[in-house]
Amino acid sequence: MTVRRVMGIETEYGISVPGEPHANPIVLSGQIVNAYATRPEITVSRTRWDYETEAPLADQFGHEMPRAVADSSQLTDEDDEIAANVVLTNGARLYVDHAHPEYSSPEVTSPHDAVVWDRAGELVMAEAVQRQAELSGRQINLYKNNTDGKGSSYGTHENYLLARDVEFAAVARQLMPFFVARQVICGAGRVGIGPESHQAGFQISQRADFFERQVGLETTIRRPIVNTRDEPHADATRYRRLHVIIGDANQAETATLVKLGSTSLVLRLIEHGDVTRALMPADPVAALRQISHDPTLRTTVELTDGRRVTGLDILWAYYEMVDDHLSRHYGHDLDEETQEIMTRWDHLMVMLGDDVLSAAHSVDWVAKLALFEQYRSRDGLGWDDARLRAMDIQWSDVRPDKGLHHKLEAAGRIDRLTSPEQVRAAVTAPPDDTRAWLRGTMVERYPHELLAASWDSVIVRRAPGEPPSRLSLPEPERCTRAHLESIVDASPTMADLLDRIV
């Protein structure tokens, strides 16, 4: 059992223009994406996205929603030739998703790499903001958050590849309690209670108040705790992709690492049939909100068997099941990455159980709470004070000299697990060990011959005047640097490359 699996993070960024509350966010988002694409030192592929293999209305139980009854936000397989879309040399996708610019990281195989390429997305967005201001003289601001505090919510989604033979009903049932409680270690924190922040207060998760169902296909309406979209972006006979929409946009690297790592390990537990404790809340949606609304972590929620437990209790139960499984099957022979996740997961929960504020250097919501409590104490502010709401937005500003999180991290008050050099390199370089390496390398070396791309295919033209052809990439851990670097180095043209690999 290992924490490693194919995974990735998609983040929609909040967007605004100072002094222009009614500016069109779709237009603004397009300007941001196009501004980044015109940076002279950046190579991107101004391709269309290849929607051929996407199926956003198919669910994990073998059904497909009729297009006639689907909300327009669900039709993500429709080619919008107007919307800005670029594929980056690091294998990521930068595009306009509805009313937000979105950075979808390349596929990686470890939580640590997920942190690196997620943070690379923050640099991409910060540079896009700077470039757009230089081009137009108009300041467009971006925020790595999940709500505007006025009733709108936008997503940070995680993706995990599973074997197709894992029963999805078991995945949904056994993940539900974990997702309800996971916010305790990876919530981003938020001023205001309720979707429209109508009630004064501070809560753990930015997203909790926006979920309405336990299981479902939608992602922007009637949001479910467990999403059932069945788009593997890989060989559908071998894989299924768990599309997780319930997470917050983390900036604290430890929280991101443990979020991805603990989820991967719980999935391994489910894959091995080793979930041995009954932890289902009697009302998961209500429990999600109850836990979020209490940053003291003392609130208990009722389980289906009548017991009352805290969110931290649920997390400890999952940790203990994972730890027991690892001990029985692997003893002390754990790989370094898995051991790191277990150690950091344990340490976070111990700190949160002993003294919530002691986790301020590792957990987003605690860091935010600690800072805001300082201002409340100094200036006598209530949670309904407009200054705190403004600080809540400023916390996630992508500009290093403006974002409060960035300032705390620069001051050494929030732990960093990556180096600035690692993250800067990941802005342009793809991961070595997934097919993202080939996608990104094609953008860099053959941008004019790459006509379209998706996660599991590319459409290329061998030479001018020749018809396009599709190159399928159904195995996420093939077409890596180890597989193809020597071939690419020996291929000055796309035609040469295709002759060698097809």
Question: How is this fold's topology laid out?
Answer:
Elements lengths: L6 E6 L1 E3 L8 H13 L6 E2 L2 E2 L35 E4 L4 E5 L2 E5 L6 H26 L4 E3 L12 E8 L4 H19 L3 E4 L5 E5 L9 E4 L7 E4 L11 E6 L8 H19 L12 H9 L7 E3 L5 E3 H20 L5 H19 L9 H16 L6 H9 L9 H7 L9 H9 L7 H10 L4 E4 L3 E5 L6 E5 L8 H9 L4 H8 L1
Parallel strand pairs: 4-17, 12-13
Antiparallel strand pairs: 1-7, 1-9, 2-8, 3-5, 5-6, 6-7, 9-14, 10-11, 15-16, 17-18, 18-19
Notes on the protein architecture:
The protein has 14 helices and 19 strands. It has helices spanning 25-37, 111-136, 168-186, 253-271, 284-292, 311-330, 336-354, 364-379, 386-394, 404-410, 420-428, 436-445, 481-489, 494-501, and strands at 7-12, 14-16, 44-45, 48-49, 85-88, 93-97, 100-104, 141-143, 156-163, 190-193, 199-203, 213-216, 224-227, 239-244, 300-302, 308-310, 450-453, 457-461, 468-472. Strands 3-5-6-7-1-9-14 form a 7-stranded antiparallel sheet. Strands 4-17-18-19 form a 4-stranded mixed sheet, covered by helices on one side. It has a two-stranded antiparallel sheet with strand order 2-8. Strand 10 (190-193) and strand 11 (199-203) form a beta hairpin. Helix 2 (111-136) crosses helix 4 (253-271), helix 3 (168-186) packs antiparallel against helix 4 and helix 6 runs antiparallel to helix 7. The longest helix is centred in the N-terminal third of the chain and has 26 residues, at 111-136. The protein is globular. The model has no long low-confidence stretch (mean pLDDT 92).
